[in-house]
Design brief:
Layout (H helix, E strand, L loop, with lengths): L1 E7 L7 E7 L6 E10 L2 H6 L9 E2 L4 E8 L11 E4 L8 H4 L9 H6 L10 E2 L5 E2 L12 E5 L3 E4 L5 H4 L5 H12 L7 E5 L3 H13 L3 E6 L2 H9 L4 E4 L4 H9 L3 E6 L4 H9 L1 E9 L20 E4 L7 H13 L9 E5 L3 H9 L5 E5 L4
Parallel strand pairs: 11-12, 11-14, 12-13, 14-15, 15-16, 17-18
Antiparallel strand pairs: 1-2, 1-4, 2-7, 3-5, 3-9, 3-18, 5-6, 6-10, 7-8
Helix pairs in contact: 5-6
């Protein structure tokens, strides 16, 4: 089947739209017509080929309509509306424990650019293979071949163009608060970096009734939005942030969530903890940081990494959609839409912080 896809090739400043050939779905797979797809920092970082092979079709925040089913697919029908999230094997201990983001095969299935058997679903106009199955979807395209475990069925009355970002950035932020840290009523938490992940976490903290929600960022405009979405306090990033947080709370916060990869910020996220507090992060610090970390863990403090918010997309995404319906989780406030052929501009806007969550409009629902 001939489709349009944004292909990442070596040396290109951004993915470029090409006509490519898409294979038919195999057993356990579906073909989904993409309606909209979010652009995530991970897409931007992977475009040069950091972990994934090239040429490749990226995209991992897709939402669309099921067009065809491979053999053995259960629970879906042609015409269903779906959101695509990360994929997993379904058989390892983490998957069987309902924690698919920690699947034993998460790395090859996410960044390998092919099925586990080494095959790909895409070829370019010259018949040369293109890498596919990025995060189980490669949804920078008009259509995608999606493993059954990657898709989450959603109600047809919810605007599909809003839903793609739920599957990565939003679920990571909200899940980190609700599922991983289990922040509760009256708790205190500070967020370092309030882009798409951080703002989703701010909304989740308000949702669960946290008493003090501190947002830290370098951009004043993002702090303004964080306050509108639930932050009780906002601070411009700087050397005195730890002292300011301790002054606000009197003892430090019970939790921090760091969405940046800056070593200095990782240090601050630990230093502002109260005794027995937990510092969580979703992006590893760049460079050598660990030797300075260990003295900070005295007093029962803990450090933990989080993948995908610890959430199972099939059960957690419908909850977030319900919260949105109730007006309690307005994640749509972060979204700005672009035409599919504006993918280069969307990438540039993400890199320079001009847009929190770009969504590419690929087709009509």
């Amino acid at each position: 089947m001939r489709i349009s896809a944004a292909v990442s090739r070596p040396g290109a400043p951004a993915p470029a739209i090409e006509e490519v050939e898409l294979a038919e779905p195999r057993a356990g797979e579906m073909r989904v017509r993409i309606v909209a797809v979010g652009v995530c920092h991970t897409d931007v970082h992977e475009h040069p080929g950091r972990h994934s092979p090239q040429p490749i079709v990226l995209g991992h925040e897709g939402a669309g309509v099921v067009e065809a089913l491979g053999e053995g697919v259960r629970g879906f029908a042609v015409g269903d509306h779906v959101v695509m999230s990360g994929t997993s094997c379904g058989q390892c201990p983490a998957c069987l424990d309902n924690r698919p983001t920690y699947c034993d095969l998460a790395m090859p299935m996410t960044f390998g650019g092919k099925r586990l058997d080494g095959s790909t679903a895409l070829a370019d106009a010259a018949g040369e293979p293109l890498h596919s199955h990025f995060f189980g979807q490669s949804s920078f395209a008009s259509h995608a071949i999606v493993p059954e475990r990657t898709a989450v069925k959603v109600d047809k009355d919810v605007p599909l163009h809003l839903l793609g970002p739920l599957a990565c950035g939003v679920v990571t932020g909200a899940g980190s608060v609700i599922e991983a840290l289990k922040v509760g009523f009256g708790d205190t938490i500070a967020f370092f970096g309030v882009g798409g992940v951080g703002l989703s976490a701010v909304m989740a903290a308000r949702l669960v009734g946290a008493a003090r929600i501190v947002a830290v960022d370098r951009e004043a405009s993002r702090l303004d939005l964080a306050r509108e979405l639930g932050a009780t306090d906002t601070l411009l990033a700087g050397d005195d942030v730890v002292a300011q947080i301790r002054a606000l709370t009197g003892r430090g916060v019970r939790y921090t969530l760091n969405t940046t990869n800056a070593p200095a910020v990782h240090t601050q996220a630990l230093e502002c903890l109260a005794m027995n507090g937990t510092a969580a992060f979703v992006a590893a610090p760049m460079g050598q940081w660990a030797p300075a970390m260990f003295p900070m863990l005295a007093g029962g403090r803990q450090l933990r990494g989080i993948l995908g918010g610890d959430a199972n997309p099939r059960t957690f995404l419908p909850k977030l959609i319900d919260y949105w319906r109730q007006g309690r989780f307005p994640f749509d406030r972060m979204i700005e839409t672009y035409r599919f052929d504006e993918i280069g501009r969307a990438f540039d806007d993400v890199q320079h912080g001009r847009t929190i969550k770009p969504v590419l409009m690929v087709s009509d629902a």
